[in-house]
Amino acid sequence: MDWSKAKTILIIAFIITNILLVYVIKVEESSSEPTLTDEFIEDVVELLKDKNIYIDTEIPKEIPHLNVMTVEYENISLEELNENYFDNAGNINFNDDSLGHIEKGEQSILLMNNRRIIYENREDRELYKDLDRDKAIDLAEEFIRKGKFDSSDMKLTFVKEDGGVFYLEYSKVYMDTLVERAFTNLQIDKRGVRRFERLWLKEIDIGETQIYINTAPKSLLTLLSMEEIYGKTITDISLCYYFDPQRHEYLDEPGRAKQGNAIPAWRIQFHDGYKVYIDDY
What we know:
The chain is α+β, with helices and mostly antiparallel strands and 281 residues long. It is 25% helix and 40% strand. Strands 1, 2, 3, 4, 5, 6, 7, 8, 9, 10, 11, 12, 13 and 14 form a 14-stranded mixed beta sheet that branches. β13 and β14 form a beta hairpin. The radius of gyration is 23 Å and the shape is globular.
């Protein structure tokens, strides 16, 4: 008997069995959850249409859960920003412990709580007459690299051009899952980067506890009471980690929160970049 061949056959059979087992479990989960049936989803879509809310993406049909993630804010100093962006030629001013400012000509950087960065460029000189989407992305990523920010956990999730200005948003990602509310936003026109804003999170630990939330179809019903999204189109529905400092013992001073737990939530993004987070249980 060819034991090598028999061993290969057994391994293949084992893999196929596991795949079938996972499939059966998923089917049973879906069939036992009434909010994942086609009929329920169709009703949700129609109810949203009644409010002029449209869906231009797939509605996830999973039992949503993630392990708890402990996160902390990325910190940076004015000295680092001055060195990276202005070659130490900017004028640094401190208003208090939580607010600092750098000026260099028509460029400035505001730093709040050593974590939220706002860069502005007020120069009028045009440098890029043939600016297009690809060039705007190149300029954005060059600016991010100049600041020595790690781009390995960044994902471009939104691009829009309006009146010659490109609006780009990068979101944090961990193991293919978005982490909110961290963001790196840029506005780019023919002058180059005219505005850059960043507030970032870093993962510290992934806990063993799994947290389950409502299914996507059921969670979408929450949108019916949000008048601010009437007339909008949903372009993405994703399960994400969601950190809200106001829910983590920082209700009085959420701006001073240093770390906390990020929990699963549905990230609903609309065609204009507007986002809603739903973490109903």
